[in-house]
C-alpha cells in the first residue's frame, strides 16, 4: 500500500513562501540595509564621503551642496510614516535637513538649497527656520531654536497625513509643514554650506 503524499507532523517538505506585499518588502530592505548617503545624488566637487558612506563633509568654499540619502530601489516615499536621524559636526553656516521631491532629483539641483527659486523642497536649518518655497534670507517664520554641532536632528515625515516635522535631541518640535506633501514622491537629504561641516546619518526607519 502506497503512503499518502503530503505534509505530516515533522515533515520537512518544502513549502513555497507566500508573496510579500511590496510595502513590506521595501520595509524589510530598509531595515536590513545600513542607511547611507548616495554618491550619485550630490555634487562630488563639493562633498567628500566616508568609506562607509554614512558621513559627508563639505569641502567647497562657497554656497550650498545638497546630498540625498539612498532609498530602497532608488524610489522616493509616497505613503507611510518615515523617520531619519542625523548627527551634525562642525556646523559653521546654516546646515539643513531636507525633504525634496522627485523633480529636485531629476533636475540634479544639488548646488541649491532645495527651496531656492520655486517649490522644490522643505528644509529645517541650523538657525531654527523651517522654509518652503522662499529663499532662506526672505523667510521670516521661526520654527524653533537653532541647533548646533554635536546635536541630533530627526526628520519626521507622515505621507498619509501629509505632515512634516522635526525633533532636536529627542525633543519633538511639532508639525512644520502640512501643504504640498500628499501626492508627491519625496526623498530625504541634507544641505551643507561651510567648509569642514559634517553630517552623519544615524538611522532610517519606516513604520507600516
Automatic annotation (TrEMBL):
<dbReference type="InterPro" id="IPR013320">
    <property type="entry name" value="ConA-like_dom_sf"/>
</dbReference>
<dbReference type="InterPro" id="IPR050672">
    <property type="entry name" value="FBXO45-Fsn/SPSB_families"/>
</dbReference>
<dbReference type="InterPro" id="IPR043136">
    <property type="entry name" value="B30.2/SPRY_sf"/>
</dbReference>
<dbReference type="InterPro" id="IPR001870">
    <property type="entry name" value="B30.2/SPRY"/>
</dbReference>
<dbReference type="GO" id="GO:0043161">
    <property type="term" value="P:proteasome-mediated ubiquitin-dependent protein catabolic process"/>
</dbReference>
<dbReference type="Pfam" id="PF00622">
    <property type="entry name" value="SPRY"/>
</dbReference>
<dbReference type="InterPro" id="IPR003877">
    <property type="entry name" value="SPRY_dom"/>
</dbReference>
<feature type="domain" description="B30.2/SPRY">
    <location>
        <begin position="15"/>
        <end position="208"/>
    </location>
</feature>
<protein>
    <recommendedName>
        <fullName>B30.2/SPRY domain-containing protein</fullName>
    </recommendedName>
</protein>
<dbReference type="GO" id="GO:0019005">
    <property type="term" value="C:SCF ubiquitin ligase complex"/>
</dbReference>
Amino acid at each position: 500500500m502506497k503512503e499518502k503524499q503530503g505534509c505530516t507532523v515533522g515533515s520537512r517538505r518544502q513549502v513555497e513562501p507566500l508573496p510579500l506585499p511590496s510595502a513590506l518588502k521595501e520595509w524589510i530592505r530598509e531595515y536590513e540595509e545600513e542607511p547611507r548617503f548616495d554618491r550619485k545624488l550630490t555634487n562630488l566637487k563639493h562633498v567628500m564621503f566616508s568609506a562607509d558612506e554614512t558621513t559627508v563633509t563639505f569641502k567647497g568654499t562657497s554656497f550650498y551642496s545638497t546630498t540625498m540619502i539612498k532609498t530602497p530601489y532608488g524610489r522616493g516615499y509616497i505613503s507611510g510614516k518615515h523617520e531619519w536621524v542625523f548627527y551634525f559636526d562642525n556646523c559653521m553656516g546654516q546646515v539643513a535637513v531636507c525633504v525634496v521631491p522627485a523633480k529636485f532629483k531629476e533636475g540634479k539641483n544639488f548646488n541649491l538649497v532645495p527651496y531656492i527659486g520655486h517649490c522644490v523642497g522643505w528644509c529645517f536649518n541650523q538657525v531654527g527656520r523651517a522654509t518652503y518655497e522662499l529663499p532662506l534670507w526672505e523667510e521670516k517664520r521661526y520654527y524653533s531654536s537653532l541647533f548646533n554641532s554635536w546635536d541630533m536632528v530627526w526628520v519626521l515625515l507622515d505621507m498619509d497625513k501629509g505632515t512634516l516635522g522635526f525633533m532636536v535631541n529627542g525633543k519633538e518640535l511639532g508639525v512644520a509643514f502640512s501643504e504640498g506633501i500628499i501626492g508627491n514622491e519625496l526623498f530625504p537629504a541634507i544641505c551643507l554650506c561651510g567648509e569642514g561641516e559634517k553630517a552623519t546619518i544615524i538611522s532610517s526607519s519606516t513604520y507600516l
